Structures are given as C-alpha cells and as structure tokens.
Amino acid sequence: MLLKEKLLKDRPSSAIVAVRDLDRARDFYAGTLGLEPAGGSEEGVLTFRTGGTQLVVYESGFAGTNKANAVVWNAGEDFDAIAGQLSEQGVAFEAYPELGMEIVDGIHRAGGFKGVWFKDPDGNILHVGNM
Q1: Which of 28, 40, 60, 113 is most buried, with most CB under 10 Å away?
Q2: CB of 95 closer than 8 Å to CB of 102
Q3: Are 70 and 15 in contact, with CB atoms under 8 Å apart?
Q4: Do 56 and 90 fall within a single domain?
Q5: In this structure, are 49 and 82 located in the same domain?
Q6: 5 falls within a domain
Q7: Residue 102 belongs to what domain range?
Q8: Which range among 22-36, 39-53, 87-101, 115-129 shows the weakest confidence by mean pLDDT?
Q9: CA–CA distance from 123 to each of 17, 99, 130 (Å)?
Q10: Is residue 72 located within the same domain as residue 91?
C-alpha cells in the first residue's frame, strides 16, 4: 500500500515529448543534441539517456501543440559551451521578451541566470539554463 506522505517523492521520473516523425526526431535528439539511446525501444517510441534520467519521445498527432517548456536541462557552469555548441549545430534560439530579461544572441539573462529556449522539429519548446 502506498503511504500518502511518500506518494511519488522517491520515484524516478522522465520527460516525455510527442513528435510526428520518429526518424526526424532521432536525427534531432541524437544527432543535433547528442543524446544517446537508452536501452530497448517500443514501436513508436524512442528513449534517450540525459543525465540521470531519460527523455521519452513518442509519435502523436498532437506533437508540438504544447506552448510551454517540454524539457529543461541544467547546464550549470557549462552553459556557455553548451549554448555555443547548440548554435554551431544550427539550433535557432527563441526570444521571449515578455519574460523581462536581457536577450543577447538568443541568450536570456537576468542576474546570474542565463538560458536559451529552442524548438525541436515539431515545435516542442526545449530549454537549457545554468540553474
């Protein structure tokens, strides 16, 4: 029996992103972002290793309809290098002036925070920050 006070706090979780085309998603997530496949796969599903967690990518007709962050990575002190590599890979950074941050070359800055937002080929919003 699951005790209410524990619920899900000690359970692992994964990010999950809907895509329309698995081959195109594989090229982007493995090729462009450099993620490695994580174990077996099911039909219509890709799983990638990302830090100590997994990113699950699955086929859906609803891909790209979310208008909020789908996946967030904490780049820590490596933020500048990672943002630079993403840019070199042809990733186009989004600009969100409504967040009230300074934006230079697609990098949002506020205090000590730096972050970039970009979209996968299906329009899912992905974010890397130095949290």
Answers
A1: 28
A2: no
A3: yes
A4: no
A5: no
A6: no
A7: 68-131
A8: 39-53
A9: 10, 19, 23
A10: yes
Q: Are residues 39 and 87 in the same domain?
A: no
25 and 72 in a single domain? The answer is no
CATH at residue 20: 3.10.180.10
As beta bridge partners, residue 22 has none
Torsion angles phi and psi, residue 37, rounded to 5? -60, 145
Closest CA to 81 of 36, 123, 130, 43: 130
- The per-residue pLDDT for 131 is 81
Tokens 């706090």 belong to residue: 9
Token duo for residue 9 = 């706090």
Token output for 18: 């809907």
Q: What percent of the chain has pLDDT over 90?
A: 79
If one counts the domains in the chain, the total is 2
Could you give the CA distance from residue 45 to residue 80 in angstroms, rounded to a whole number? 31
Number of separate helices (H) and strands (E) present in the chain: 2, 10
